[in-house]
Amino acid sequence: MENSNQQNLELIAQTIKTAQRRFYDDSPYYILWGSAVFLASVLQYFLILAQSEYNPIGWAVLIPAALIIQFIYTRNQKKKIQIKTHVESLLNTMWTAFGITLMIVLFFSNKLGLNTYPVILCLYAISTFISGSAFKIKAFVLGSILCWIFAIVCFFVDFQTQLLLLSAGVLVAFLIPGIVLRANEKAEEN
Fold first, then answer.
1. Which CA distances in Å does 149 have to 36, 75, 91, 177?
2. pLDDT for 15
3. What is the rounded distance in angstroms from the CA atom of residue 29 to the CA atom of residue 34?
4. Could you tell me if 140 and 132 are in contact, meaning their C-beta atoms sit under 8 angstroms apart?
5. Of the candidates 74, 60, 54, 39, which has an alpha carbon nearest to the alpha carbon of residue 166?
6. CA–CA separation, 136 vs 172, rounded Å?
7. Tens-digit pLDDT profile for the chain (190 aa)?
8. For residue 148, what are the CA distances in angstroms to 32, 38, 155, 177?
9. Percentage helix, strand, coil, to 5, in the chain?
10. At what angle do helices 86-107 and 116-134 cross, to 10 degrees?
């Protein structure tokens, strides 16, 4: 009986490790989206300072480019994945819900006005908190906590400052944790 329990625990540990390993494979998504949103928000900030009427150009170029890159990468990844764990399926569902909710928020951003970026930062925080907690990756959990703090601050500052807080949010919730994931992936390969 005790031997069977030990085998069950080992199987669970192996399943979690496999799911975590596949989660490491998602690091390019975090790096891609962290970079795209960071660059678009910082570019818009500086173009607003320069009083350019084309200040949203970064969003119009970088986000579609990131979508195309993600589509290509996802298509190539799907060929490699055989079986998904329950945790992986749940996280995929959560990220799908995140994407749908983000699209709704962005579509109705004219109704939200200055509250758009605080809401987006909260969405970033929720999704990265769940992902980080699922695999006990502290960089994601810390990034999500900082996003919540940035979201609160956003309610009290002007639009330009919100752009900087948004860029800081994706830096700490997507880009840096994505780089940490990538480093962990490389370390496991060696």
1. 22, 35, 24, 17
2. 63
3. 8
4. yes
5. 39
6. 16
7. 556 777 766 766 666 666 556 666 778 889 999 999 999 999 999 999 999 999 999 999 999 999 999 999 888 877 666 667 777 788 889 999 999 999 999 999 999 999 999 999 999 999 999 988 888 889 999 999 999 999 999 999 999 999 999 999 999 999 999 998 888 776 666 6
8. 21, 17, 11, 16
9. 85, 0, 15
10. 180
Tell me, what DSSP letter sits at residue 61? Answer: H
Predicted local distance difference test score (pLDDT) of residue 4 = 73
Under DSSP, the state recorded for 1 is: -
**How far is Cα 60 from Cα 53, in angstroms, rounded to an integer?**
13
Give the Cα separation of 143 and 22 in Å (integer).
21
